[in-house]
Specification:
about 0% helix; about 50% strand; mainly beta; single chain
């Protein structure tokens, strides 16, 4: 079956770190742009980051710039979101998605969207 599976979420204290993983099965993730999105309770979905498939260019929302790093490991068919200096406002369900290219001038997104994961929950609280 074709799917994206996120993992690595959990409870972390403010200022802490987490690394989220997005593993693809049933298709080759290497040839897709990968985006990370999040949705907090009562708020609309927000683009967090994107990494291109060709040159590896990365894009970040202003709210996470300098704190989050997106990467990919083609050999493992997996993308990652390394999160540092986490804040309570980062609390959300985080989703990964695969598409043709990164897009968005102010908020990262993925054009030609093909696949979505089911999400992993991140809670930042003392």
């Amino acid at each position: 079956q074709v799917q994206l599976v996120e993992s690595g979420g959990g409870l972390v204290q403010p200022g802490g770190s987490l690394r989220l993983s997005c593993e693809a099965s049933g298709f080759t993730l290497d040839y897709y742009a990968i985006g990370w999105f999040r949705q907090a309770p009562g708020k609309e979905r927000e683009g967090v980051s994107c990494i291109s498939r060709r040159d590896g260019s990365t894009y970040y929302a202003g709210s996470v710039k300098g704190r989050f790093t997106i990467s990919r490991d083609n050999a493992k068919n997996t993308a990652y979101l390394q999160m540092h200096s986490l804040k309570p406002d980062d609390t959300a369900v985080y989703y990964c998605a695969a598409g043709d290219y990164c897009s968005g001038s102010t908020s990262p997104s993925v054009g030609g969207m093909r696949y979505w994961g089911k999400g992993t929950r991140v809670t930042v609280s003392s």
